[in-house]
Every structure is written in C-alpha cells, then in structure tokens.
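Dear Dr. H.,

I hope your travels went smoothly. While you were away I took the liberty of generating a structure for the chain from your last submission, since the lab meeting agenda had it listed for discussion. I wanted you to have the full record in hand beforehand rather than looking at slides cold. The sequence, exactly as received, is reproduced here:
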Amino acid sequence: MRNKYATFSSASKDRATSPSVLFVVRKVHLTSIVMATSTKELCLRMPWGKIRGRIFGASNPRAVLCLHGWLDNANSFEPLSRFLCDERLGYKLICVDLPGHGLSDPIPPGVHYSMSDGLIVLKRVQDALEEDLAPSCDVLAHSLGAGICGWFASTFPERVTRLAAIDFLAFSPFPLKKHGDKTRRSIEIADKLMMKHAEAIDKPEMIPSYPFEECVDRALMGNWFINGENSISRESVVLLLRRGLRETSPGQFTWRADLRLRVPSPFNMTVDQVEHLVERIECPHLVIKASESPYYFMTDDVTERITDVYRNSNQNFALKNIDGGHHVHMEKPKEIAEMVAKFFAKDFKPKNPDRDSGPMIF
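The corresponding predicted structure, in token form, is as follows:
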C-alpha cells in the first residue's frame, strides 16, 4: 500500500507547491542496451530540505536502493544501470543524493554533518517509497555509502534483504588513545570551515569558480591524489560533475558539494565497536574489493580481524576481489553488474547460528 505521505506529480507543477514526493520523467537512450531505459528524477521532502536522486529503470519491477560515496552523487550508478536495468535483468536502481551532495539540499547553516544523517535518510526514503522498498529491500552502495548502508543493516536488520558493498569493508577503527586528538582536530577544522561557509552565503561572489574543463581537471587530480592515479577516468569524472557542479555565471562553475562535508568526524570507533556493528549484520552481504584501492586507514591485522568477524558471524558473507581502482563500478560496470546480479539472484538460506552450512559460495 502506498505511503499516504508519498504523492506524485508531473514536472510541470510548481516545485514550491508540489506534493512531498516528486518525479520528473524522461527517456535516456543508452547504446550498451537493447531497450531505452526510463529514468526519473526523485525528490523527497525532508524536515531540513529536499533529498533528490535518480531512478534508473523506473518501469522495472525489482527495486534496489543505491547510495554513492563521499563527494559523489547519484550519477555514480549510471554506468551500472546500463547493465542492471536492461531487459534481461530488469532492476530498478533508486539512487539517492546524500544531504549536501549532488542535487540534494544541504543541512542548515551553523551545524555540521554526522554519519548518522545517512541512516535517517535511508529510513525516510524507504518509508516514503514503501511500494518499492518496504518492508525490506536489496541495497547496493559504494565507499562511504556502503559504510552507511552497512551501519543501517546492522541497526535495522529487518529493513535490508541483501547488501552489496563496493570497495568498502567497514568504518575504520582507531585506537582509543588517539580519539582525543582526532576530536580536537575535527573541531578546529569545523570551526574554520563554519566561518568559510558563512562567508560563502553572505558573499556568493567570492566563491571560486572555473570553466567546466578546469573543474574536470581539478576533480580528476583530486580523485587521483586521494584514491590513486588512474583510479577514475576523465569520462567518469565528467559524468559525476554533470550533477556535481552549479553555474555561477555564464561558462563558470563551482562545486555543489557542501564545504562542511570535508570536516572529519569528531567521534570515532574502537575496533571492538566496529566488530559489534559488523556482527549484527544478518542479511546476505557481498563486499567487492578493488585491487588497486587501499583499506582506508586500516592496518592489515585490523582488516583481517574485521573480515574474520564477518565470516564467523554471517554464513552468507562473501568477499570478492576485482582488478581496478576505487571507482571500479564506473570503470568496469559490466563486470560489477554481473557480480551484483548473481548475488541478488541467489536464493540464500536463513542465517544459521550454528554455522552448519559453511560460507556463502556463488
């Protein structure tokens, strides 16, 4: 039954008076598939503003909730949609822009982002789109989005049917003795960026802007600096920036991503806390790890320890490796789509506390 708070309207109605859920329909012709895939723009009203996104394969029956990585946006899943949403597989990818990313509204001025923001977004999106996503749904996520979705599956296990995580194992734990210094550094950075954010609101003409191609160059170099050289192609950066830039004047652009997203978390977890969250994930869980991407901030022994917890607590956990960089889902969409589709199609046995059946094989 459709959520009584989720209504639909055409794109022609005024956005200020439109109902709480708005879809704008358009057709996108993709050369890699036989049929045209219908794509809809998604808009959900939240207490702080609007959450937007894209729905690929909008007329398909098999819905998957998708969440992108840090400073990316819903376009991250467009390459995968060319395969997962085709006539053969028939998936509907509901891809959300996190707050402050893509076309979604930022949080109000004067406050900062929390990792738990993503949990609220996932829960509200699932409730609003209950025909597709409730009471439980398959989830596909990349990087930071995969971390948030893993935390969501741990906190609300009844809401996630299967979880496919691309290039993310778990949130990185830090030794307790480092927590105080990390909190101090976060607060100092937050204080500076709060002032810069306020200045940008008061004096928008002071925001740096660049021609589109220079934005692409800067984003490409930034990605390579963080994730490794050749971790993402120029073509994929262009795709992300089509949703990640806004025009400040004719031919000049700046980033849509909220400056405050660069503030590191003031609170961190110990390895025991990470293990507790990991062992609470009950659903079938696939981690696809890119060979040329590190386990961010994790030592080898901690990586092995957390992986062992996954395997020992969930018989339906699998870790698969693939050659490629951090944005491997954009660079090798066909291979990733095949792995994800095979995982989502598998008929899993219920979680067995006695571990009789051994690890998942697919």
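Two observations you may find useful: Residues 177-262 form one domain. Residues 1-36, 355-359 have pLDDT under 50 and may be disordered.

With kind regards,
E. W.
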